[in-house]
Amino acid sequence: MAFGGTKEAEMEKETWPELNRLASSVPEAGIHHQTCMAYSRKSGRVDHMRGLTAREPWALSKEELPQGIDAGHTFKSVCINTAIYLPYLVSQCLKNGVIMKRGDLEHISEAAGVHHTGKKADVIVNCTGLASRKLGGVMDTTIFPVRGQIVVVRNTPGMMCSLSGCDGLEGDVCYVMERAVGGFARYLAQIPIEIANLSLGGGTVLGGTYQVNNWESQPDQNCAIRIMKRCVEICPSLTNGKGIEALSIIRHGVGLRPKREDGPRLESEIIDGCKVVHNYGHAGYGYQTSYGYAQEAMKLVAED
């Protein structure tokens, strides 16, 4: 979650109603409500609750904290299974008449020439992330990767949790997110979400890392072991106290978050006679700020 008073926190608040709606009434979107535990150690920041968009967080008692944890809060939030959510978004675009094309561009202005009508497009929206660093007409050298490594397991702890101030190497972080499957049966819309989620075995994501300017795309085994050990430590329900040997691993994964030195770029300009609206560089806040930033980008598109 973003800190209060930041642009990201504002965009989270703008995004929350739609994510909440999807979690409440659109199970095929792959988003569900889940209890979240936010833990902290004295070595980490203790003000991590600022700017949280989830409702009614409350402090945990010492008896409710895992060993070695100094403080914690709990609240209800949403968890997104992106492997389901992204195809869902594609389906919504197709439903609304969007024409999709794949292609390679060397310059941003070339996008205006691939409109499905054969005419030149009026507006280009640039959401190319890290590719904006090398895309002609943009060449944004202020954008850089923040590497994230995860382990996806079959174990189901029944909650999400995160930890501020985790031990380990620089760039190590700790979080556990149990995902929903979503979309496998429309009748789930008629079932109370608390019951439906019990059967949505979408695996659990164990994380992770926040490694600035690291372009490595392959998982590191030593890092994976550190991730699993930390997650089992703060969330014993993952293995019922049996250690990392009891984790059932589905896969290892790596993603490169697109971050900019000055934060997300949201502005418009004219390039080769065509209006270009830039909306990229959201780092690790992309999903949770998406609808807020999309609305802001729409305003720029509509401006004369």
Structure write-up:
- There is one protein chain.
- This protein is α+β, with helices and mostly antiparallel strands and 304 residues long.
- The chain is built from 5 helices and 12 strands.
- The strands form 2 sheets. Strands 1, 2, 3, 5, 6, 7, 8, 9 and 10 form a 9-stranded mixed β-sheet that branches. A 3-stranded mixed β-sheet has the order 4-12-11, with helices on one face.
- Mean pLDDT is 87; it is low at 43-54 and 182-200.
Structure described in brief:
This protein has 304 residues and is α+β, with helices and mostly antiparallel strands. The protein is 21% helix and 28% strand.
Entry keywords:
304 residues; alpha+beta; 9-stranded mixed β-sheet; 3-stranded mixed β-sheet; 5 helices; 21% helix
Give the terminus-to-terminus CA distance.
34 Å
- Radius of gyration, whole Å: 21 Å
Most strands sheet: 9 strands, mixed
The helix-strand sequence is HEEEHEEEEHEEHEEEH
The amount of beta strand, in percent, is: 25-35%
- Tell me the helix content: 10-25%
Secondary-structure topology with pairs:
Blueprint: H1 7-25, E1 31-40, E2 55-59, E3 71-80, H2 82-95, E4 123-126, E5 143-153, E6 160-164, E7 172-178, H3 193-196, E8 204-209, E9 211-212, H4 221-234, E10 249-260, E11 265-271, E12 274-280, H5 290-302
Parallel strand pairs: 1-6, 4-12
Antiparallel strand pairs: 1-3, 2-3, 5-8, 5-9, 5-10, 6-7, 7-8, 11-12
Helix pairs in contact: 1-5
